[in-house]
Amino acid sequence: MNILDMKFMKNFIKITEDAWLKGWHERNGGNITYRLTEEEVNEIREDLNEEASFQPIGVTVANLANEYFLVTGSGKFIRNISLNPSENVGIVKVDESGENYKIVWGLENNARPTSELPSHLMSHSVKKEKTNGLHRVIMHSHATNVIALTFVLPLDGKVFTRELWEMATECPVVFPDGIGVVDWMVPGGADIARETAKLMEEHNAVIWAHHGIFCSEATLDLTFGLLDTIEKSAEILVKVLSMGGKRQTIKPDNFRDLAVDFKVELDEKYLYETDLVNA
To answer: Kind of pairing, strands 180-182 and 205-208?
Structure first.
């Protein structure tokens, strides 16, 4: 089957269009990666260039050996992916050592994978292990309100988690494992990749201060939905703070009741009240 006709490719293109319309991917901002299933690889194997040369990833991801990833390109505009997928995205294969990759499809005209490939692959590595292979997507977006909050909230995952949980009742159900926060770091290198991966051990969402957010889930829809939920909650919080702050809110026992009814586990470290008005 032609790669562009594959369901995973059509779903990937749709997500990039939706993310562009959300305003999360200005110019060439943000990037998305999807780990292909064995069945998907087998269906497109004849179209893959296995003779391509390997080059260093910059980090080691041993448990991703021989895995294939659909990736957005470096310097490519998300809004152009649907217009010309083969120039703006590609499929890369990780070698047997987990230290190198090669482009086996797409990224035409000497294009390269996203410069944040090390962060993506290290997070994929963690999530593959933690979820027994269930998680296949990493989405990094420049979500406006999330970024805005990193300039006014303490850069503490406990604070971000509690504040965002309070803004929409569904939040503790959608991301019961909370949110991690990485202080500002230069993007694209091994250092930020390692710091993000550490937090991905515990969370499915990690905020990069003054930059954006990384989200992981099993499918493209679930990953987009996680990011969309967090960003909407952040938007509500921005509005609440701009109106003078909270006058009432969801209490710790309310969260505990919610957890029982929706059968989720909420870490008690997030069940404390903060006072942002007087902070």
So the answer is: parallel
